[in-house]
Amino acid sequence: MIEKHCSCPCPHEWTQSATFIPAWVRETPTPKVCPQPVQPQNPNPVFPSTAVLPMYTPLQLKKTGPETVLVTVSIPAESNITLPTDALEVKMVRKHLKITQSRFFNSVCSVPGIPADTPKLFLGGFVRKDIQYSHAVAQTSTTVDGVIKDFVIDIPISFVIDLGKHLRYPPIHYDQQREYGYARSTPLPSGFSSKDQLLSSDLTEFNLLSQQFYNPLPTCQLLYSQINEMDDALDWGPLHGGPFEEGTFRILQEKMTILIQLKLTFPTRLDTCCRDSNDRYEDEQDEDCLLREDNQTPEHCKPDRDCKHHPHKLDYWLDLLIVLLKAISDNKRLK
Predict the structure, then answer these.
(1) What are the φ and ψ backbone dihedral angles of 158, each rounded to 5 degrees?
(2) Percent of the chain with pLDDT over 70
(3) How many domains, the chain?
């Protein structure tokens, strides 16, 4: 027996009519959404993409401890600053030095006949300037009514410090890869003597020994900074409708010298060369700077035991001085 289903809804079923959509909505085309361009992000806007950095000689390079070096350098800088509005007078300028990069580059030994390079210290950052100036809003022939405005700008700086040659820094250890194999003897084909065999290395294997050294970098600490600046207005003009001696400007040309004192802390002990600091740019011993195959320290990079600054020499003289002082004290007791 075939059951017949009626087209009318059953009492227990719930139905909903279609949502009403106006005709003008159905006729309106769907707008096309264009993808927004992704703005490139510069992780460090202080440094340009390509630049030749100036190099400066430190005013003072002093070893303050077995593992620390004090570096003092003077950096000149110049920039043009455009204020957002016309300025009547600069009231105050606050400056802060901020270092964003301090990277030590150690020197490597050169080949015979070619002078070796000197260690370098790459520094980068910016000077934050907070300029407070007065802006004229109304003036008469004898008065000027103004408001105080504030403008903050970051002036980038980037340079290299030459650390010279009168300090011996920890040497660089280089990574190495060496290939090795095993001997193998195989029988020869027909045409050779039955007593002979093919003696060679095994070409079916590839063995490699890799050595990697993790050279530690020194830490840098900013101890002192001094900024001496001179600002000149480039577009100064008279203030129309104001006193005859008053004027406004918007572009400032700034010249400043930045005195920076840093402390470098190395993970290992530093040694002082016997050569005089005035001969820091001479290179009479660089021809003997050869890196051995076993990755040892070059001969001229090792501490000189004949140097008066060598720690063993200093310990010897200290022990001798202690013995003499004890002998003098014993003689006084006997008397």
Answers:
(1) -155, 125
(2) 73
(3) 1
Token pair for 307? 């140097």
Greatest CA separation for the chain: 143
Residue 202, in any domain of the structure: no
Q: Which two tokens stand for residue 227?
A: 């900024």
Residue 241 lies in a domain: yes
DSSP E strands: which ranges in 212-324?
219-233, 237-238, 247-265, 271-272
Q: What residues have CB less than 8 Å from 120, skipping those under 6 apart?
A: 55, 104, 105, 160, 161, 162, 163
pLDDT of residue 314: 63
CA distances to 63, 89, 175, 201, 314 from 249, rounded to whole Å, are: 48, 8, 59, 82, 64
In total, the chain counts a number of residues equal to 335
CA distance 219 to 121: 11
Residue among 252, 234, 250, 232 nearest 136 (CA):
250
Q: Provide the pairing of β-strand 120-139 with 144-162.
A: antiparallel
Residue 289 lies in a domain: yes
Contact in structure between 200 and 95 (CB atoms under 8 Å): no
Residue 237 token pair: 């003009």
**Terminal Cα-to-Cα distance of the chain (whole angstroms):** 143
pLDDT tens for 11-41 read 555 565 666 677 776 777 776 666 666 666 5
pLDDT tier, 42 (very low <50, low <70, confident <90, very high otherwise): low
Q: What is the DSSP letter of 288?
A: G
Flag whether 29 is in a domain. no
Residue 253 is part of which domain span? 46-171+216-304
The Cα–Cα gap between 53 and 103 comes to 14
Q: Which sign does the torsion angle of CA 131, 134, 137, 141 carry?
A: negative
Residue 79 CA, chain-centre distance (Å), reads 22
Q: Are 221 and 71 in contact (CB under 8 A)?
A: no
pLDDT tens, position by position, 220-268: 999 999 999 999 999 899 988 889 999 999 999 999 999 999 999 998 8
